[in-house]
Fold each of these.
Amino acid sequence: MHKPSFVLGYHGCDKKVAHRLLLNETSIRPSENSYDWLGHGAYFWENDHARALQWAHFLKNRGKIETPFVIGAVIDLGHCMELTEIRHTDQLKEAYREFRLFCDEKKIPLPENKRGSTDDEDLILRHLDCAVINIMHTLRAERGQPPYDTVRGIFQEGGEVYEHARIREKTHVQLCVRDPRKSIIGYFLPNADK
């Protein structure tokens, strides 16, 4: 029997999209970019409205949306691949080894994590990470193992909080919801000052 484990997630998007989600007029569209660091799915910042709003402004500055907005979601993690647990990072190591062997046999280059801009020290274009996580999901399906509903990881990003710090300005916990219809219990309009 599945025992729910709920978290709050925040998604930066256009205001019109957020209102359509609130009214159940649309579903959130999972991302399928080759650089999505947790693989394909719908992305949320866990418990961080401000970071989701920063992202929405980033999207506006790139001409992707008109009005930056944040929608909240109650997410049931379900069967979660928790990247802070060694048993799950061990699965990724195995998936990487198998993927690398496949690429070697087919004589195709491994994808690479790359900079998104000249000042990007975080290699935010995570082509390799995305491919390995997606391969890991495929391997699990081929082996008859239960699929993961969500993937959860800590992303260290940005400059040092202070000189010589190992803590980064934009570090966050991110959630990748693989099947939003299954894992998102509902959406809400967040109180921006919480």
Amino acid sequence: MALAWIAQQPGAFNLALQALDEAETADEGVATAQAAGIPPQNFLVGDRFGNIAWTIAGHLPNRVGGYDSLLPADWTKEGTGWDGWLAVRDVPLIANPPWQRLWTANQRIIEEPWLAKLGDGGYDLGARARQVRDDLRAHDTFTPAQMLAIQLDDRAVFLQHWKDLLALELNRAPKSELHAKIQKALGDWNGRASIDSVAYRVVRAWRNEVIDTVLDGFSARVREKFPDFTMPKLSQAEHAVWQLLLERPAHLLPPGYADWDALLIACADRAGENLDKQDGGIAQRTWGERNTMRIVHPVSRALPGFVARWLDMPADQLPGDRDMPRVQSPDFGASERFAVAPGDEEHGYFMLAGGQSGHPLSPYYGAGHADWAAGKPTPFLPGPAQHTLEFSPSK
């Protein structure tokens, strides 16, 4: 397999993005971003006149000859493949939409014909983006405090229908000691991915087991010929699996199950047994225990444990999850939280995971990290000076 990479194309990199420091309008910001030689990124911009826009910063390849990036293609055929960079007029752009909101959370933002220009490298599910969208629609104006509330939104909107389905299936199924433990755990459901929630962890584990089981059924036929085949993780599999659970077609039921209800209960049994066999059983399996931070120094893995603990950030339990605005997992999450209203910097905040210094001997190593973990806003403006660095000419 031969792969073409835009980073290897002539003109892929430049320093044009530096001009963004001097842009004064949203239009100038868009033009600067689209001319920048960087890996393509979502770009959101707003100006003091109230204009807002979204586009892609960086160059996009111009696909020609009916080339579809999702399918194998023979570039030895003349006129097939990439032909330079996509013209600016063809680069996706959303400017001043009538809904007066723009947001991005790695979801698909555009549809055809722009989607064909941009391509599909694997978009996020969209549950987090939908929650951000709804939070933004809740108000007409926003203070920094309200923006922080959106960033800290850990409501489990996405899992609510899974929780309801699990409760329904357990009520239908024959009673067992394990089912009683799961039902009792569901009783603490508060609709959030909070660190003390056992229900959230149980529902999430069951949902993952169901998706894996259903997808594995599709790959069973493939494994008859290729025994080592495993179904890749698909971020959009949620939609397909949920549609199957709604329609329950008999011919797509994975082998080994009498019906779809049997599959769902078997998944509940497997997920429940895995949690229950740990110390304290299901009742002690909080989400915080599973969602414990692992932010480590690059060299700590090569050092003794007692030294590594001094270099690494604390193993704090974190609320939130991947599919909600408070996006946090043990090794993935929002690297920073930031909001400031021009002219009202006093009420702005800037929260940074890992702290202000990367030097373990610095007094500011990890400073501010605890605020990020706890969701406590660190002031945007600096406090009183604590150190002064003076430069003087040598004699």
